[in-house]
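Exercise 7. Given the encoded structure of a 64-residue chain, write a plausible sequence.
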């Protein structure tokens, strides 16, 4: 996936199967989970990654 966009401007297009599969693998998510996250925060890769990082910090203490 090569684009001229800046990394913070990249968007995830869940309508394209190939792109959806790429981001599911990249982010280690199921397609349903990725689509739900995008409904909450929008399709910007930066925002999705930030959401995932915040969720990890929230749930991290529960793992121990």
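Solution.
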């Amino acid at each position: 996936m090569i684009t001229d966009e800046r990394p913070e401007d990249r968007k995830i297009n869940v309508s394209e199967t190939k792109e959806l599969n790429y981001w599911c693998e990249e982010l280690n998510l199921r397609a349903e989970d990725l689509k739900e996250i995008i409904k909450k925060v929008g399709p910007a890769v930066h925002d999705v990654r930030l959401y995932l990082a915040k969720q990890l910090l929230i749930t991290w203490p529960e793992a121990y």
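Remark. The chain has one domain: 11-63. Students should compare their own answers with the one above.
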